Amino acid sequence: MCWKCKSPINQTEIYRSSTCPQCGRDLHACKNCQFYAPGSHYDCHETVDEEVRDKERANFCDSFMAKKTFDGAESARADDAAAKARDAFASLFGN
User: Fold this and answer.
1) How many C-beta atoms surround the C-beta of residue 67 within 10 A?
2) Is 43:37 a contact under the CB 8 Å cutoff?
3) 39, 62, 65, 67: least buried by Cβ within 10 Å?
């Protein structure tokens, strides 16, 4: 399923160059991975050595596993949790 338009993807393998046939967005991207977790270290539940800065673009991550479904509420909660964590960090240092 595409992280952007939520269209089903009928591919068994997603490669770095794979794109959504509906909206054209990259599929091998953090936002399309089951390990994507905003607020976690590098926004990932896997142990990764370096940060992928653009979570919406294709990357070379070896841990990538395509997310099967997207729950809008789950995504909103994750984004809200990340925002709360950033705000708490900023308030800690008076920013």
Assistant:
1) 16
2) yes
3) 62
Amino acid found at 7:
S
* pTM score, whole prediction: 0.68
Query: What does the pLDDT read at residue 73?
Result: 47
Residue 94 has pLDDT above 60, yes or no: yes
CA proximity to 43, closest of 9, 78, 5: 78
pLDDT, tens only, 29-51: 999 999 999 988 899 999 888 88
Asked if 16 contacts 28 with a C-beta cutoff of 8 angstroms, the reply is: yes
Residue 32 pLDDT: 92
> How far out from the chain centre does Cα 90 lie?
23
